[in-house]
DNA sequence: TTGTCAACTGTCAGTGGCTGACACTAACGT
DNA sequence: ACGTTAGTGTCAGCCACTGACAGTTGACAA
């Protein structure tokens, strides 16, 4: 009765969560202030007062720590996408998934890391060659997963029908460009990014909004 | 008079070339047979009988060795592209650059590394996560460079006119997909790759072949 | 030819990311 | 209250990579 909901989750698990969060916060803080490569694992673990070994029990690598929040956001997006009703077109589904992910993400995020730190981390990734490489690979993997999801929704096969991959590629392409421009700009706020994303996606809409339940390849094309 | 054309290039330079080539050949051979991560620098340098330090004097990193041949091919392509006459359309120029690069590359390549080893290396890169990441980043950088080149040819600005980047992206996209499919296929010969590339690029042609000297976006484009 | 200079290489010592093994402590279930 | 087990620290070590210094060997001029 000394604690609120602490009994639902054990003390052990709570401690774990605390050290992980601390490691993550300190890591991102150091990365974004002194640079990724300039920061050693020892600096991080010294600040949190745990052993280096503990760091690697939570994060498989230094990189993984840098991408931990990004990973979280991406998973929220995937969850949202899976939850979209089947009536929505692929584009609507992806777009709405982004919208609804924004909300659930920002609160789940804030519990671990201030949003502002997440923003700085994103900028760090885009400006650190080693991290750019990893980011591109991760994006490619995410695209593949999303394409598969979209294809399933529409009852298509990713390997025979090019439309899922193409749609996803252009969608994430827009997202990526948005992030880049936002990074270059002055206003690094969440709202600015949200608004910018909406505006850019609006341009993409019409091109992808058609109905997909009818074939389109080669000869069996209709005069849509 | 004991040597043919050895006097044109000093003994020193020749030795350098030899050790570099040896390091590269052994490195790629080991990478492709036992895997990239399973191969240590010591294994390579032991086989060539030089110190580990020497390896890092020739290659800034282990990765750089893995991409040395790819780098060479890309540079040949860029050279070919720069040499294309101004009359050619962007697409023609890129396509012809690829064609003419094939020849100059294969002979320059063979002097250092057997073509077959290059092929295996490419497959290795595509199947090693750490190298995939680097490859994607390198490709992005190459695309940027090519887009800049194309824009210059056409007297455009990459930042205001989206067409150069779009064209390059689709072009390299086709090239990339071709490489992937070729990698999955049975026939891993150069000819197969060449032919496949031609066939795929043929599909892309019409969409990009238009004249670019006339404006198409916004209003403030100049007619020259 | 010889001697000086510069380039190339090896050795050594050290840093930082990362891992396996083992022992210890503390939360957990009974 | 007590055995179990998850989480942690310590230690020893591998591997990629770097700086500093010294030795060797082509290059080039006197």
TrEMBL record, chains A, B:
Pfam families per UniProt: TetR_C_14, TetR_N
Gene3D superfamilies per the UniProt record, alphabetical: Homeodomain-like, Tetracycline Repressor, domain 2
Residues annotated as domain HTH tetR-type: 17-77
Coiled coil ranges: none
Protein name: Transcriptional regulator
Keywords, alphabetical: DNA-binding, Transcription, Transcription regulation
TM regions (residue ranges): none
Molecular function (Gene Ontology), one example: DNA-binding transcription factor activity
DNA-binding region as annotated in the record: 40-59
InterPro entries: Homeodomain-like_sf (IPR009057), HTH-type_TetR-like_transc_reg (IPR050109), HTH_TetR (IPR001647), MftR_C (IPR041347)
